Amino acid sequence: MAGGWLPVWWTLLLVLASMAGEAVGRFVVEKNSLRVTSPPGLRGVYECAIGNFGMPQYGGTMHGVVIYPKSNMKACKGFDDFDLSFKPKPGGLPVFLLVDRGDCYFTTKGWNAQSAGAAAVLVADDKLEPLITMDSPESSGTDYIENITVPSALVTKKFGDDLKKALENGDMVNVLLDWRESLPHPDERVEYEFWTNSNDECGAKCDMQMNFVRNFRGTAQVLEKRGYTQFTPHYITWYCPEAFVLSQQCKSQCINHGRYCAPDPEQDFDIGYDGKDVVVQNLIQICLFRVANETGKPWVWWDYVHDFAIRCPMREKKYTRDCANGVIKSLGLDIEKINRCVGDPAADEENPVLKAEQDAQIGRGTRGDVTILPTLVVNDKQYRGKLEKSAVLRAVCSGFEETTEPDVCLSEAIQTNQCLENNGGCWMDNANNFTACKDTFRGRVCECPLVHGVKFAGDGYTHCEASGVGRCQINNGGCWKEARNEKTFSACSHEVSEGCKCPPGFKGDGIKICEDIDECKEKLSCQCKECTCDNTWGSYECSCGGSNMLYIREHDTCITKSSTSSLGWTFLWIIFLGLALAGVGAYAVYKYRLRSYMDSEIRTIMAQYMPLDNQETPNQHRPVEHADI
Ligand SMILES: *[C@@H]1O[C@H](CO)[C@@H](O)[C@H](O)[C@H]1NC(C)=O
Ligand SMILES: *[C@@H]1O[C@H](CO)[C@@H](O)[C@H](O)[C@H]1NC(C)=O
Ligand SMILES: *[C@@H]1O[C@H](CO)[C@@H](O)[C@H](O)[C@H]1NC(C)=O
C-alpha cells in the first residue's frame, strides 16, 4: 500500500466500499518506464513508480544523467548546507538525482532535489519489495509540496544499488524517463473521472482541490463542449458496519441508516458540520451532474462546484442545503429533479445514486480501487502527480490518439520550451522568423509551419518551403523577384513542382538571381538582315528596316511586300485609296480584284498573323476585313 494514504478517520469505524468483505482492496501502482542508455552493463528498460506529487510528463520523455549525492543521500536536508548543486552546466544534460528512501517524507526529498537544481528525483527503495506509490503527506507545514514541479519516481532497491555501483565505478549513467505509455491513448476522445469531495475544510488537500477546480474549469468546459472529453465526477462514500448503525458516530456521519457515510470534517462530533452533511452535499453534486448531463450540459457541474465553494463555505456556516439551492437556481437547473434524485436521507433505504458510486469505487479493468482522495482517472488509469492545471491537462492530452489532440494540448500552457534552445534542431527561416519547431506536451516536433494560410512543406528539420496556391505570397515562394520601371518579374510559379524558374527573357537559378538575357548580343533573336535589335530588361525590341516591313516575333522574321507576295500591303493600300477615290462605282471592280489577289499564299500568312496583329494594330487590317465581306 502507498505510504500514508490511510485516512486518520479510518479509526472512526467507517468502511470504504472498496475495502469491504471478501473483495480485498486492489491498489494499482501506476508506472512509467526508465531506459538506461549507458553504461552498456546496465542498458535496458526498467519500471519505476510515478510519485503522487510533482509533475510527471505524461505523454512525454526526459533525458538526463543520474547523480547520487556524496552526502545527504536521503535528501532530508537542503543541499545548500552541503554546498552541493545539481544545476546542469550549460549544454549539459539535466540531472536526475538519485536519493535513498527513509527518514523523511518523499515530498521533502523531491523538494530538496528540485531546490538544488535537479530536473527529476529518483528515490531508491530501502527494502526488497515490489514498487509502491510515493504519496504526499497530509500534515501541516508542507506548503512546499504545491511548488514541486519536477517529476518523481521510485525505483526498486535492486536497481538503485546497480545504479550506485555504476556511478561508483565512475561510469556516466544516462537515462530516459518515459511516460508515453503511462496512460492509454486509444482514440480521439478521452474519458476521465475526478474523485472528489465537497468538504472544504481538510487543509492543504481541500485547498488544492478547490484551486484545481477553479483553474481547470474553463479548459474542462471547452473540452467537454467540443466533444473531446467525457467527464464524470465521483464521490467516495464509506459505510457503517452493521453492528454500529445505531451508534452516535454512525448517526452523525451517515445517511440512509448507516449506508452512506463521510468522515466528520473536523474529526470532532460536537462542533461544526457532521459527516452526514458532507454526504448530503456530495449527493447533491452527483445529482446535479446527472440532471445537467441529461439536459446535454454536463459541464455545468464545474460552475456549480466552483460557485458552491465560494458562496457556501463551512467556515461562514453556509454549508447548507438552502445555500446549495440558491446556487442551483442561479445556474437555472431543475431543482425539483435534483431533489427527487437526492431522496430522503433519513429513510432506511438504498439511494441508487450513492449505491452506484460505491460500486464504482471498486477497481475494474486497468483502474484499481480509488482510495486516494482526490484522485483523477484518465482513460481508466489513475493519474499520479500534482493536482494542478497544466500537469492534469498534460495527462488528459496524452490520452488522445496521437495527432487527434485538440489545440489546447498544443498551447503554451503545457509547452516544454524545447524550441528555445537551438530552435529544437528544427528548420528555421531566420530572415522571416518562420520556424518548424512546435512546442507540444509530447515534446517538441519539427513540423513545417502554416504562415498566413500558406502551408510549408518539407521534412521540418533541414528543409521547408511554401507550397500550394498562395505560396508566392510568402516571401515570393523563396524565389527571385524584381521590379524596375513599373515592370515586375518573378521566378515563382504557383505550380510547386516547378519550383523557382526564371521567367522568359531571364536566366539564373531562380532563387537568388535571374539576369536579363541580352537577346541582341547573344544573337538569339532579331537576326534577320534588315532587323535592328534593341535589348530591354526582360525582353528586346526589334524593328525592321523600312516602314513597310513588319516584325513577326514568333518567327523572328520580318515580312515585307516582297517577302509575302508581289501583292503586299502597299498594293492593298493603293487599292484602298483607289477605292476611296473611285467611289461606289469602283466598288465592284475593287472586290473582284481583291479576291484575285488573295492567292493561297497570302491567305495562309494572314490566317497565321491576324489574331496577333489584329489586337495591336487593328486599323491596318480594316482593308482586309472589308475585302472579305
Ligand atoms: C511556493 O510558491 C509560491 C508562489 O510561487 C510562493 O509564494 C511560496 O513562497 C513558495 N513556497 C515555498 C515553500 O517555496
Ligand atoms: C452522461 O450523458 C452521456 C450521453 O448522454 C452518457 O453516455 C453518460 O453515461 C452520462 N453520464 C452519467 C454519469 O449519467
Ligand atoms: C520571432 O517570432 C517569435 C514568436 O513568433 C518572437 O517571440 C520573436 O521575438 C521573433 N523574433 C524576431 C527576430 O522577430
Features:
5 domains; 15 helices; single chain; seven-stranded mixed barrel; Glucose Oxidase, domain 1; elongated; disordered N terminus; alpha+beta; Glutaredoxin; four-stranded mixed sheet; binds 2-acetamido-2-deoxy-beta-D-glucopyranose; 629 residues
Summarize the structure in words:
- By secondary structure, this protein is α+β, with helices and mostly antiparallel strands.
- The protein has five domains: 5-24 and 184-410, Glutaredoxin (3-Layer(aba) Sandwich), CATH 3.40.30; 31-178, Glucose Oxidase, domain 1 (3-Layer(bba) Sandwich), CATH 3.50.30; 418-467, no CATH class; 476-516, no CATH class; 525-573, no CATH class.
- The chain is 28% helix and 19% strand.
- It has a seven-stranded mixed barrel.
- Strand 16 (428-429) and strand 17 (434-435) form a beta hairpin.
- Helix 5 (275-294) packs antiparallel against helix 6 and helix 12 (569-582) packs antiparallel against helix 13 (584-597).
- The longest helix is centred in the middle third of the chain and has 22 residues, at 204-225.
- The chain is elongated and about 130 Å long.
- It starts with 14 loop residues before the first strand and ends with a helix.
- It binds 2-acetamido-2-deoxy-beta-D-glucopyranose (3 copies).
- Residues 232, 290, 293, 298 line the site of one 2-acetamido-2-deoxy-beta-D-glucopyranose (NAG).
